[in-house]
Amino acid sequence: MDTIISVLSLLIVAATIFGVAVGRWPLLRADRTTITVIGAALLLGIGAMSLEQAYEAIDFDTILLLFSMMVINGSLFLAGFFGVVTQRVVQFARGPRSLLALVIGASGVLSALFLNDTIVLMMTPIVLDVTRALRRDPLPYLIGLAVAANIGSTATITGNPQNIIIGNASNIPYLDFAAALTPTALIGLVICWVIVILVYRDEFRSGALAAPNVLRTRVYRPLLRKAALVITLMLIAFLVGVPVPVAAFVAAGALLATRRLRPERVFKTIDWGLLAFFAGLFVVTHALETQGWTEQLFTALAPLAQAGMVPFGLVSVVLSNLISNVPAVLLLQGLIPAFADQQRAWLTLAATATLAGNLTLLGSVANLIMAELAARWGVRVSFGAYLKVGLPVTILTVAVSLVLV
Fold first, then answer.
1. Which segments constitute the Citrate transporter-like domain (predicted)?
2. Is the pLDDT of residue 362 over 60?
3. Secondary structure (3-state) at 91
4. 231: buried, middle or exposed (CB in 10 Å: 19+, 13-18, 0-12)?
């Protein structure tokens, strides 16, 4: 009976990870969140783990940090912060190349400070608005936005979901993490800018921008000032060693404590499905451990620890593109104790798993968000168009990370 449960568990986990990788299950109308929840439910149903083990599998620090960053991003959105960014981009852009630099810079920096998926969610309409106002082809700027968000998010623990998981598991201080990976992110943003210009030469031959149409945005200044103060204090808390989930949650609570803005408006901006996705994924991957499959996987991959960081990083890149970066991190994190320099191994995993997301349009949630929102505006971002930028950027940035980390 135990053998049957073990084999069924492996099949369910494999089917779940396959569904997460391709974004759906054949014959079913199920997205990634639904797939992980169904997978977790099936594993509980066949007795692969107890309910208590399922609770223990969920990394509530990660869930709390994700929730807190979504509240912060939602508050910034309602305050009109992203509209202000739009106006500044239009104001300072002197030509298409400087416009691209501003889009990439804003996306990269904001994604380092906050959560890259939500930054892309907020900024994609901005880029579409700006390019429409300036009468430019939106495609290279949209691709630059998504690629830069992935690259910029490499720099900090709060930049993306896989870094949040790694930060909580490794206990690397926020400042140490940022100091180690920020150089890779900065060089990566420059690489992104150069590659987009080379791939879309025609768009960037013109030296001038059309006179912009007027872009109006509503700014709620009391909330914007409050958010600026709260976020500054949160970043200071990160730097002085306050646990990242605690500092972010306190900041989120402070932003929700308002007399004028209804909290439900903030809650409507939260991606509750993403939180459920991670809870389900934690349970699904934990089933490999309860059924003994994780131990066998680590035995097979143990030579990686002796082979060094480069092979480990390359395996991370490949696995992140096969099964998505978050499941890859959850599987590979068990190998870290076998490395002599565990902190470097954690940082290598963070950099390569994140940068791997730029390889294809399907490589990261940020890419998919950008493509889906663009489609609603009538702009098609094809797999091939993205690959022209994503492939060289991924090769170069991963190489940089393996040298610098």
1. 30-355
2. yes
3. helix
4. buried
